[in-house]
Design goal:
- By secondary structure, this protein is α+β, with helices and mostly antiparallel strands.
- It has three domains: about 120 residues, Nucleoside Triphosphate Pyrophosphohydrolase; about 90 residues, Phosphorylase Kinase, domain 1 (2-Layer Sandwich), CATH 3.30.200.20; about 230 residues, Aminoglycoside phosphotransferase (APH), C-terminal lobe (Aminoglycoside 3'-phosphotransferase, Chain: A, domain 2, Alpha-Beta Complex).
- It is built from 15 helices and 18 strands.
- The strands form four sheets. Strands 1, 2, 3, 4, 5, 6 and 7 form a seven-stranded mixed beta sheet that branches. Strands 8-9-10-12-11 form a five-stranded antiparallel beta sheet, sandwiched between helices. A three-stranded antiparallel beta sheet has the order 13-16-17, with helices on one face.
- Strand 9 and strand 10 form a beta hairpin.
- Helix 9 crosses helix 14.
- It is globular, with a radius of gyration of 26 Å.
Amino acid sequence: MESPRAETNTYRLIVTRRNASEILLLANDSGWALPQVQIHPNQRLAEQLTGEVNRAWRVDVCCLLIPNLPTCRQGEMPKYVVMEFVQQKCDAPTGMLWVPRVAVNACVEASEARLIQEALKGLHANAENEKAGPFAKPGWLEELFRWTQEQIAPLGLRLTGSFRQLNASPTFSLIRLETEGGAVWFKATGEPNSHELCVTVALTRLFPHFLPQILGVHRPWNGWLSAEAPGISLDQAESCAAWEQAATQLAEIQIASMGKTPELLEAQLKDLRMPRLAERIDPFLARMNELMAIQEKRTPAPLAESEIRMFSEVLKESCALLESYRLPDTLGHIDFNPGNIRMSEDRCLFLDWAEGCVLNPLLTFEYLRVHMMRGRIEDPAASGSLATAYLRPWTHFYSPEELRSALQPAPLLAVFAYAVSTDSWRSADAAQNPVLPGYFRSLTRRMYREAVQLAQRSEPCLG
């Protein structure tokens, strides 16, 4: 379709139709072969794959499966993906041919034929396994179209047939479906985020002004259909005013959640209240001490045991200090990033609540503040203006001086809450994992730097 580019991965496309009984092959100088595309790493895979096919052939396909084949190992190329033609009865694009699966072996090179058959074997195994994820089964997109039309018909809407698939996974799906009156989004999640449906349904019921409207729930797929949030995402905004609006509305949804902790915990939001954080300090830092001890690289230098002891004391005192201000436990979000905040003229909508939690409110604000400072806002006064916008609604309950003081330990505690929000740091094989030890050592060094700065600023309080 296009020549290879720098920093791309090659994917060979096993495009199927009619319950994967036929495969699409491309004519070349030596006979027939699978078509292939070049994909940029670190971008949404399904969106790129389906987009490349649509641009090249002017047809719609959906991703079914990224098979675990020998050629899919890291560093080996090409990779394979199993896809399905949406227009099942359409002729093959120019220069291509639909070939029965049983005839593929006679059309392509023997080693590739074996890989194709192995990939399709996995696809059919998913189709026959009731416990397998629904999105690696032929025909799932057609079923989604039918179900979605049933949900939106009472609203006077009809699907146009246009869609954009963003995820390709047996148990996860994110897809935008266009209607004659706007767009709707279908999202489904599997482990470890299978709780997101319960969380999203509960938060939409409790705080309808702050989340997109849910139009239907597909429980067998653990998914839901939502109206498209209007406006732009906050990470596209270039003005401080947009960030200040988001900060203000974050405070408003948190204030609205006061007193609703039992309902939030029942809805499976993570429990990151201050006592829960405090009780994780000792075991977390004991594990980090172990990970520092096995570091092989000389730089950055591992923290010494004495440094971790000092850090532990500051962390415990910070928890006690923040708790002393008696701010309420509220709705929080460990992954509160601007890409999940939609901005319109009159309000913000907050999306993607897999990392929703019950947390001290100031820590979620700290995540927002850090994202702004790392983004395109270059005004040195922006951080102060953001804090003013966020704290203003809270001044109905606390004095500005109390709130400003309570913000002091937030940078340290926000990183700690993020680090212990899952149990991956407890994992018995964390030391053998090639990624986790370095990741947690990096987080711990960052917390140590925050602890040193906090101790220097607040020695009378923390000493």
